[in-house]
Amino acid sequence: MDSLDQTEWDVTISGTGLPQSLLALALSRSGLRILHLDRNGYYGGNEAALALRDAEEWTQEHGDQAGQERRAFSQAELVNKDGERSQTGLGPSRAYSLALAPQLVYTRSNLLPVLVSSRTHEQMDFQAVGSWFTISAPLSIQQEQSIIPTMMKVPSGREDIFADNTLDLRAKRSLTKFLRFVSAYDTDELQAQWASIRDKPVAQSLREDFGLRTDAAVAPLLGLALVPSSSDTTVMAYLVPRIARHMRSTGLFGPGFSAVLPKWGGLAEVAQVACRACAVGGGVYVLGQDAASASTTEDGRTEVKLSGSEKVTTKWLVGCVDDLPHSFSQQTGKEDGKPWPRSITIVSSPLTSLFPTTSEGGVTPAGAVIAVDSPDSDEPPVHIVAHASDSGECPQGQCVLYASTASENGMEKLDLAVKSLLQSVGEDPKPQVLWSMRFLQRAPRSAVTQTSDSAREGNVIRLQTLSTDVVLEDGMLEDVKKAWHAITGESEEHFMKFEPRNGEAEDDSVL
Amino acid sequence: MADSSQPSAPKPSSSVKLVLLGEAAVGKSSLVLRFVNNDFQPNKEPTIGAAFLTQKCQLPTRTIKFEIWDTAGQERFASLAPMYYRNAQSALVVYDVTKASSLVKAKHWVAELQRQASPGIVIALVGNKLDLCEDDAEGGDEGEGEGQGEEAGEEAGEGKGEGDDGKVRKVSAKDAKSYADDEHLLFFETSAKTGHNVNDVFTAIANKIPEASLKGPRGGATAGGGTQAAISAGQDSSRVNLNARQGAEGGPKEGCAC
C-alpha cells in the first residue's frame, strides 16, 4: 500500500459524517486534490449505519464516560447485555443496518434538490414516512402495568379531522381554523396576529387564541411538530413554523406523506453516496486515520500529522468538531445543551399497523413517527421513529425503533415509551424486544441556537455537527455551502450542479 | 413511472445493485462497457476512483435494472471497496485468464465479500480475456497475438509480454470452475473484446437474485390495492421518486420560514 507521507493536498477532510461527505460531494468536480480521512474503519462517522455486531462493538467504544467530552456519544450500552442471542430470533449480524442518524428528511428539505442536481439521487432509494401517532397516558415508572396506553393516529388532513371521533365538532372547527392560520402564518395579512401570539406558550395560545382546550386536540399538534419540550415551555414561534413545514411538505413527492427516509440505514446512505461521488472524481479515501495535530507552515499551508504518524500538507483542513485536532475543537460556547438519551430497539414484529399505505396508488411507507407523552405534563415527550424492514435495516418480520428524548435521566423513559408503543399497537402476537442499545448524544440542540457553531480559523474550517432534532435541519447544508464557497470561491448558483459524467444516462425514466 | 417504450403490459421492474471487483487491468470496465454500450475500447485508461453505470436486463417475467459500480483495480489505501459493496445484491469478481495472480486476488475479494457484504449477495466469478486463449477462443476471429495489446484492459501496457507463444492461458477453466463450485459462485469465462458470454453473466445474475429481495417485503400477499397498482406500474412499491416533485404546489406557499 502506498504511503501518504509528505503528500500534498488542496483539501483534507477529516471524518466521513454527513456534513463532511456532502462537502466532499460538492468538491467532487472541482479538480482539487482531496484527501478524505476517517478515524474509524467504517464510513459515516456520527451518522454511520452499523451491522448488529458492529453496533455491539460501537457501544463498547462509546461506553466510557471519561475522556469522551469531545465526542458526540457517551454512556452507550446494550440493554440486555447477557440476553441469549441464539434464542431471541435475531437474524445474522449483517442483516441489520442500524442508523445512528435516523432523521426524517422533509420533502422540502434543502438536501433533496441538491441530491438531484448533483446526480446522486439515482444511486439511493428514498422511502416515505407515512403516519404520525401519539400515545397518551403512557406507562410510568411507578405503575407499569396498570392501564394500557392509547395510541391515536394524527389526522393527516381536513377529511381525517372530521372523520376523527375522538374530537367533538367544536374541536374540529377550532383545529381546522388553527391549521388554516398555520398555512398562512407568515403572510402579510396574518402578520399582526402572528406577532401577537408568537411568544406565547403553546398551551395558552391554543386555548385562548384558537379555542383548543382538550388534550385530544392539542396532543396531535405537538406530535406533528415533534416538539422536544413540554407544552408549557414551548412557544408558538417554535410550534407554528414546524407544523407549517409539515403541511407544506405534504404531497410534494406524492400524495399522503411529507417526509422521507434514505433506505439502508438513514443518513449513512447519503454520506456514503456522497463519498463515492468524490472518489469517482478522484478523491483519495483513507479509513482508520485522522488528523491528530496540525500546524501552519511557513508558506501558509497546513501541515497535518495523521494518527498513523505520517505527515501531509494541505491548503484547507475541514472537519466537524469530533474529527479535528484538539486545538481546533474547543467549543465556541456552551450552546451544546444537555446530552439527549437515545435508544435503538429491534422488535420481533413488522408492526404493520404503523405503516398503512398513505393513499390509493401511493407508495408503501417505510417510516412512521410516534410521539409519546410524558406521564408528567411538565416533562419532555419521547419521540420514536419506526423503520419498517423495507428500509433494509432489519430482516422481514421485524422493525427498528429509534427513540430519543430531551428529558434528563431519560434512559428509563425511552424504555417505557417503547413498551407503551408495543402494548398499545395492538399487534398479535404481542411484539417483543429482541435487542436494544442506548446512549447519550451531545449535539447542538437545533440550528436556531447554533448559528456560530461553524467556524474558520485561517484555513481550518469546522463544520456544524447535526443537531439532535428528529428532523434533518437545513442549517447543516447551508454550512457546507459556506465551506465550499470559502474553498472554491465559486458563486452559490453553481453549488452541487453537475453535468452527467461520461457513460451516465442523461435521464432514466424508469424507476 | 411506467416504461412507455414497452407496448405490452409493463413487467415488474426492480433495481439490483452490482459491484465489480478485481485486480487492475483484468478488464472490469471493459466488461461493463460491453454490457452497457455493446462497445469495446482497445486502450482504455485505468478507472479512477470508480464509475457508476446502469443497464436494464429483460427477463421473461420481469425487468432488472442493474446499478453498476465499477471500481478501480489499483486502489491505494484499500478504503474504497467497502463503500461499493455496501448493500450490493450482486458482485462480479473478475480475473484475467492469462494471469494467474489475478485469480489469487479474485479469491481474496470473494472471501472479503463473504465476510463483509450483505448476506445472500449473488457473486459471479468471471475469467476475462478469453479471446487471448487461442485453444478455446469461441468468440475468436482474432486469435492473433495482436489482440493482446488491445485487450490490455484498464492499464495500457499491463499484461504485455505474457508471450505470443500460444500458451497465454494461465488459469484453467476447470480449476476456476471447481473453486467457484466450492464457494457457490456463478462462473463464466468471457471476452469483453468479442462480447463472448458477457450478457450471459448479467442474465445469470439477474436470474439468481431471489425474487423476495426484489419486491418490498410487504408488497406481496398482504398488500392493499394501492401497492399492487404501484407494482404493476413497474415500480418498487416503497420507492419515492425524487424526480416527481409536484412543481405546481410550490407556488403560492413558497417562502417557508423553516
Automatic annotation (TrEMBL), chain A:
Xref: InterPro entries: FAD/NAD-bd_sf (IPR036188), GDP_dissociation_inhibitor (IPR018203), Mrs6 (IPR017230)
Pfam families (alphabetical): GDI
GO molecular function annotation: GDP-dissociation inhibitor activity
GO terms, biological process: small GTPase-mediated signal transduction; vesicle-mediated transport
Superkingdom of the organism of origin: Eukaryota
One term under GO cellular component: cytosol
Family of the protein in this entry: Belongs to the Rab GDI family.
Protein name in UniProt: Rab proteins geranylgeranyltransferase
The organism of origin for this protein: Salinomyces thailandicus
TrEMBL record, chain B:
SMART domains, per database record: RAB, RAN, RAS, RHO
Pfam families assigned: Ras
Swiss-Prot/TrEMBL keywords: Nucleotide-binding
Lineage of origin: Eukaryota, Fungi, Dikarya, Ascomycota, Pezizomycotina
Biased composition range(s): Gly residues: 217-227
The UniProt record lists the keyword Transit peptide: no
Protein name (record): Uncharacterized protein
Record's compositionally biased regions (Acidic residues): 134-156
Organism: Salinomyces thailandicus
